[in-house]
Specification:
The protein is of the alpha/beta class. The protein has helices at 41-49, 97-103, 112-120, 136-147, 166-182, 194-200, 218-221, 264-267; strands at residues 2-12, 15-25, 30-35, 56-61, 64-68, 73-74, 82-85, 154-158, 186-190, 203-208, 211-216, 232-243, 246-253, 256-262, 275-279. It has a six-stranded mixed sheet, with helices on both faces. A five-stranded antiparallel sheet has the order 2-1-4-5-6, covered by helices on one side. The chain has a four-stranded antiparallel sheet with strand order 14-13-12-15. Strand 13 and strand 14 form a beta hairpin. Helix 4 runs parallel beside helix 5. The chain binds adenosine-5'-triphosphate.
Length: 290
């Protein structure tokens, strides 16, 4: 479990900004920080990872104090059990995929962990290639694998997919979810992509001006469940879930997402990533101010 309570005065374009974040993340949870640019999302992750010292507060992870201003505790970033993936892959260009992963090994560690990650991230065919010859999605798979070499308990993902196209994002989201489950990670993602947030996270925290202003389950946060009717729209399937005898299909339209109830015959040929049209004739449209 991550218990974070940090204060930091940051310098924004509009002057100084007081960041104060209180956050508790259960072990195995997948949460997302969401919010406008400059709200303090990256700074929050940097404080958790030890790259930026808070001015005040404390950080405790699974009962171990990583930071406590009062007690003058500030664990070295190398000793914090964290994997960090950024938008830019930060791989070593002169090393192959395998070498990039092996370089991250701790002296005491067995190489089998690298083999396991190569298999999980399906990098077998790419293991002797150098990053310059890989696509963005492939590079990000390597970066994700590298972040997991030290078998961290906590994975931090700072907009890791924002440089990739939609198809590649969908694939990488699957790899992220698989790694999160397989390695029992506690994961914190920063993302602006509502479809991605709904697909991946258990809980979302919206930040504004250095504070958490809203939090909740992604469908509630993004207004899903509100009725929509008598219109036609096109969108992209984000998720298909079986609930009792029906299926709930979550579809992204622009920057919004809606849930549509479907039966077995409608979903049998659908999968996440498919473009679909949805039309409704039975009810009048409902207008709801957001
Ligand atoms: N080391 C620092 N010292 C002081 N201020 C900083 C420092 N690092 C970042 N800032 C400022 O803190 C503010 C928040 O930045 P941060 O990168 O945390 O926001 P963000 O929510 O991640 O934004 P984005 O979505 O654009 O990445 C910015 O105005 C930034 O200039």
């Amino acid at each position: 479990m991550i218990e974070l309570n940090v204060h930091k005065t940051l310098q924004s374009a509009q002057g100084s900004m007081e960041l104060h974040v209180e956050l508790t993340v259960e072990k195995g949870q997948f949460i997302t920080l969401y919010g406008e640019s400059g709200a303090g999302k990256t700074s929050t992750l940097r404080m958790l990872s030890g790259l930026m010292p808070p001015d005040k507060g404390s950080i405790t992870v699974n009962g171990t104090v990583w930071f406590d201003r009062e007690r003058k505790t500030n664990l070295n970033p190398r000793h914090r059990n964290i994997g960090y993936v950024f938008q830019d892959y930060a791989l070593f260009p002169n090393m192959t995929v395998s070498q990039n992963l092996e370089f991250a090994l701790d002296r005491k560690q067995d190489k089998t962990v690298v083999e396991d990650l190569i298999a999980t991230m399906e990098l077998q065919q790419l293991r002797h290639r150098k990053p310059g010859t890989l696509s963005g999605g492939q590079k990000q798979r390597v970066a994700l694998a590298r972040a997991l070499v030290r078998q961290p308990g906590v994975l931090l993902l700072d907009e890791p997919l924002s440089a990739l196209d939609s198809a590649m994002r969908q694939k990488l989201q699957q790899y992220i979810l698989e790694a999160h489950k397989k390695y029992g990670l506690t994961t914190i993602l920063i993302s602006h992509d509502i479809g991605e947030i709904i697909k991946l996270s258990d809980k979302v925290y919206e930040m504004q001006n250095g504070k958490i202003v809203r939090q909740g389950a992604p469908p509630d946060m993004f207004g899903l469940g509100k009725t929509s009717a008598k219109f036609r729209f096109t969108g992209e399937v984000i998720r298909i879930q079986k609930e009792d005898v029906v299926y709930v299909v979550t579809i992204r339209i622009g920057n919004d997402a809606v849930k549509v109830i479907a039966d077995q015959s409608e979903v049998s040929h659908l999968q996440p990533g498919d473009k679909v049209a949805v039309a409704s004739k039975a009810f009048n449209p409902v207008i709801q101010k957001i």
